[in-house]
Design brief:
Length: 270
């Protein structure tokens, strides 16, 4: 019987592939036999991850680009097609936040830095829209391909502080749903697009917010745990199965969805 989860030989692009979550996913996909393409701005981090993957027997290359720079991404596409000859999957995992686009407890909406918010929206929204435009064009020619966007818990509920980030990720959800119809109705049902919305994971960008200097939980983290039935942070490997399912043929009739991976946070109330 056919293994619907088989992704061996698939050419999978992952933007932000050397971040805390992206790195684990990149290594996992390579272990499953995929040909992984890491895209990001840091040559050192990208090439370092490629070496790590190859040490473990996997296949990977790095292509340097800013995900909001269409010209750079077009050059990446040429490099990928020259190397592997096709593009099967695009995972838009690049994203992030910055202090000016947040509102701390001692601030109000009137303290929001609009330029910082624009930067956060550009990275998180247009950092998914632009790579999709570039790489989905190849999928349209092939008549097949899968796109997976990274959303967030903050796209589902307006969380305190993360004003710009939440707005951008909510837009990613809408873009995902819009593109599900746009791609399949115009280029065939071999092209799918979905999103995954991680809950609270410890990453470089939120560690200082979630942990005190001594490693104990901050007040904000305690509040998060009080609303998370699993009573723990997510680990990168908690995402592997959902990502694998959504990019494999096991989900070939699934498009336009947002899969939540959050230990029950979004479902819980009191």
């Amino acid at each position: 019987m056919e293994n619907l989860f088989d992704i061996s030989g698939k050419v999978i692009i992952i933007t932000g592939g050397y971040g805390v979550l992206g790195k684990g996913i990149s290594m996992y996909l390579a272990q499953q036999g995929a040909k992984v393409v890491i895209i990001g701005r840091s040559n050192e981090a990208g090439e370092g991850l490629v070496r790590e993957i190859k040490k473990q027997g996997g296949q990977a290359i790095f292509a340097q680009a800013d995900v909001t720079d269409k010209a750079m991404l077009e050059e990446c596409k040429k490099h990928i097609l020259n190397t592997y000859g096709k593009i099967d999957v695009l995972i838009n995992a690049a994203g992030g936040n910055m202090p000016g686009a947040t509102i701390s407890p001692n601030q109000t909406i009137f303290d929001l830095n609009i330029d910082a918010m624009k930067t956060v929206v550009e990275l998180n929204l247009f950092g998914s829209v632009i790579p999709t435009m570039v790489f989905a064009s190849e999928m349209a020619s092939q008549k097949y391909g899968v796109i997976l966007n990274f959303s967030s818990e903050s796209s589902l509920r307006p969380l305190t502080r993360v004003a710009g980030y939440g707005v951008a990720k909510a837009a990613v959800n809408n873009f995902t749903q819009y593109m599900a119809g746009e791609l399949s109705m115009k280029f065939g049902n071999g092209i799918r697009i979905n999103a995954v919305a991680p809950g609270f994971f410890l990453t470089t960008q939120n560690k200082a917010l979630m942990l005190n200097p001594d490693g104990s939980l901050s007040d904000r983290a305690k509040s998060v745990m009080a609303h998370t039935p699993f009573n723990r942070f997510g680990e990168p490997e908690d995402l592997f199965g959902t990502v694998h399912y959504l990019i494999s043929d096991a989900s070939k009739f699934v498009t336009g969805t947002v899969a939540v991976v959050d230990g029950g946070f979004n479902a819980f109330t009191i």
